[in-house]
Amino acid sequence: MKVYDGSETDSSQEEEPERVKVGIAEYEVTTDSATLTTSGLGSCVGVGLYDTKTGAAGLVHVMLPVAEEMDDGKPAKFADTGTELLIEELEATGSRRRDLVAKIAGGSDMLDFSEGGSGIGDRNIDKVKETLEGYNISLVGEDVGGDHGRSVQLKSVDGDFLVKSANRDDRTL
Q: Which family does it belong to (predicted)?
């Protein structure tokens, strides 16, 4: 019988990657082994980008569709400028657009009482997709719409995008 005295390392226990929280209207980029997380995605959209060659990853939590004339100094707040910013930040780490893939979640119609036309969630989704298309970045997974909130985790070790929701099973994109 072998007694473990703490002086040896246990190879069966792998270190957990660092968890990095991304707040509303914020973004994070990592080139290390990390899990980027955000929560509170109602009409907001979480955009995850993953570099299939280098393993770099980025996540932005956007609130509104377009910045236009609302320059409040927070480009990550908007679907158009937030997605562009995330792409540019990943390029600054050495990523190339052709190696990036995108996964998105959110864009629910939870509290939107607008009459006629699409709600804020739909407009956020459309603007993110339009921006990704403009940069020729493939959207390879999405969990959008509906009437429920979500939280997401983007794992930089493999690009898995875990979507958690209160009213259904977790889903990995």
A: Belongs to the CheD family.
